[in-house]
Amino acid sequence: MRPSPTRRTVLTATAAGAAALTATGTAEAAPTSADRPPATAQRPTRELRALLREIDAVRIEATVRRLVSFGTRHTLSVQDDPDRGIGAARDWLLAELTSCAAASGGRMAVELQSYVQEPAPRIPTPTKITNVVATLRGSVTPERVYVVSGHYDSRVTDVMDATSDAPGADDDASGVAVVLELARVMAKRRPASTIVFAAVAGEEQGLFGSAYLAQQLKAAGTDVQGMFTNDIVGSATADDGTRDPYTIRLFTEGVPSSETPEQAALRRSVGGENDSATRQLARFVRDVADNDATGMRVRVIYRRDRYLRGGDHIPFLERGYPAARFTEPAEDFAHQHQNVRVDDTGKQYGDLPEFCDFPFTARVAKVNAAALWTLAQAPGTPKNPRIITSNLTNSTSLTWARGPEPDLAGYEVVWRETTSPEWTHVLPVGDATTHEVDLSKDNVFFGVRAVNRSGLRSPVAFPSPQS
């Protein structure tokens, strides 16, 4: 076991760090947490930078325009017309992902994942719902899985109107375009862990496609360690015309949707409201994707989703999987859920491609790629982390299970003040499964992350108390 710094050393370093931020006495000179990278930040590798350079805004635009060309992609629209409706969009997506798979050397498999949804709110009659799914199997730890999705169905003002034109360029051809571009770029590579690329249906009618996908994974016992949905990622322009083209929001819940009463009692006892697996996933995204390689700022929002809205990450959250939603920085609701029309003032309504910003969407794809590729290449999130609470002591003992990765190099203990949103300290502890820090567990939050021989780090695991 590597010796820990003493409590005096730790407290002195913490105090010095705080003093350094205010030494000038001016608010302008002191960087905020949003202006400097977290202590856990990871610089993009040469491999990742090469991958990101391949993401193509022109291809993303072509995907959005092709999906819009099907007229409507409403879940209740026609499924057997080759040119119009959700069935035509489904078949085109299948062909596109199959083309991506052809470059994978057999590592990517593509399927239509279908089921019949019985009548439900917004589903008046039994309706076939089909997800188009491509799975790129990992070459080292294929049992560890990451999922990225966008929904290919669309709607207009009346959510039950299945015949009017519903172009759905921003909501959500943009998200599907991100998924397709990631599949194209990654199919040629060998991720260590498995990545699932999903274009899901039924979102506007009630998250039906993603719920089916999540349930299939859960029933199979799949170890999904991260899921991202891209929903409304096509524009950087708000309803008042202001633009923020270098920010993407990431919505992340705190208290888990799947929490049991016992887990809730435990959370309340340790103050873990901001340390769910999903919040750790969000911190990881900022660690690896908020940098010059993506050209984007990741604005983490401490909410499951926006008011009055919900996305395809929610069924994953409800099944206990870490999941988060990417959405553009500020929305223009005249171009979402609207019939295509021009009003008496000449204002254009409707979710049309001319209101999209394709270079922006390409940068969103880079954020996704940086997160997914690093997750797939890094070790998995440490399992069974525990903080020992059997004795009253001013030091902290942590334990965790060693991961199965053949290139695992060791672990790092991280900590932060209870009021801090980001991890502020990192301590390498070697290839061990236990470590003691001469610092009181009552005063700070601790976590553990894994490191491989290439220097890639996992998301942080938040420990539960063990008496």
Structure description:
- This protein has 467 residues and is α/β, with parallel strands linked by helices.
- It has eleven helices and 17 strands.
- It has helices at residues 7-22, 46-53, 57-68, 86-101, 169-186, 203-206, 208-219, 261-270, 277-289, 314-318, 358-377, and strands spanning 108-117, 127-136, 141-151, 193-200, 223-230, 247-251, 297-301, 323-327, 341-342, 348-349, 383-388, 396-401, 408-417, 425-430, 434-437, 444-452, 464-466.
- An eight-stranded mixed β-sheet has the order 1-2-4-3-5-8-6-7, with helices on both faces. Strands 15-12-11-17 form a four-stranded mixed β-sheet, with no helix packed on it.
- A hairpin with a 7-residue loop joins strand 11 (383-388) and strand 12.
- Helix 3 crosses helix 5 (169-186), helix 3 crosses helix 11 (358-377) and helix 9 crosses helix 11 (358-377).
- The longest helix is centred in the C-terminal third of the chain and has 20 residues, at 358-377.
- The protein starts with 6 loop residues before the first helix and ends with a strand.
- Mean pLDDT is 93; it is low at 11-33.
Question: Brief description of this entry?
Answer:
The chain is an alpha/beta fold and about 475 residues long. It has helices spanning about 5-20, 45-55, 55-70, 85-100, 170-185, 205, 210-220, 260-270, 275-290, 315-320, 360-375; strands spanning about 110-115, 125-135, 140-150, 195-200, 225-230, 245-250, 295-300, 325, 340, 350, 385-390, 395-400, 410-415, 425-430, 435, 445-450, 465. The model is unreliable at about 10-35 (pLDDT under 50).
